[in-house]
Amino acid sequence: MIESFKAIPPNNVIAGVGSALVDICLLESESFVRAADARIGGMKLVDDTVTPMLLKKSANTPAIVPGGSACNTIIGIGMLGGAARFIGKRGNDGYGRMFEEGLKRHHVEPRLFTSTTPTGTVLSLITPDAQRSMLTCLGASSETDPSEMTPALFENACLVHLEGYLLFNKDLMTAVLKAAKASGAKISLDLASYTVVESSMVYLKSIIGQFVDIVIANEDEARVYTGYTEERQAIRALSERAEISVVKMGGRGSLIAHNGTITPIEPLSGGKIIDTTGAGDLWAAGFLYGITRGYSIEKSGMLGSVCGYEVCQVVGATIPDEGWRRIRTRM
User: Which domains does the chain have, with CATH numbers?
Assistant: First the structure.
């Protein structure tokens, strides 16, 4: 059991803070992605005209589901049986109402501010190799005010999980970090995208160690943050300032560093990978659920691997009921 979580009751809340976004998942060719001026495998901020224009150009029908990185993770924790809460801002529109109902349906307590600005969206362009390239319109989520972030939002929380996209709004991120720490919670941060790390390096390095206890990165994010291309070197560098560090390596599994030890986690295999949207978010759901329930690092990592594997079997970041049944059986 991880020492710092020994005294935490299993019914304590895991709260997530991030952008309340609706995922619009579209299967398309690599040439379509390039023509859309998206960063393959990365994320690009766009205005509210881009997604409707691209949807008109596509002959394919998109899948539309509640999304956002931290939201995907918190939904996973709720479906695993954890006490889950999501904090963000949605539009007072159809997408916004769909987003809130989706949280409730997945056993997540919504604490949502509202705005007259439309709910944000993420157009996730998925190529035949299962790679996704994201075009994000933040919409109402960009209007979350730092003054709205108070310790009361995090009452009964043992852990607060943050998405790296909050780094685009440093005042908001700082307010969230301070309020979460004031509540007594641990803080985990998913670095979200190598493009986010590139644009936020100085600020990011100032908050890891001071506020962030758990850092979760994929191999590209870890490389950009640390400067190391070899994953074991990268995770050693990450672990110098965080209690727990993770480097996810897709089909090669993951590495977790804690107390000077690096634990490798084997990937699951056997099914066809359809879409990697949400794979890292659901990996985080399984891992964070595990460590707050007193599981070992290895068992928590394996649960993360199972959740990440299952979401890759479908389009979008929503695991169907039969997938959750398989996950619970493995638990």
Answer: 3-18+69-110+143-324 (3.40.1190.20)
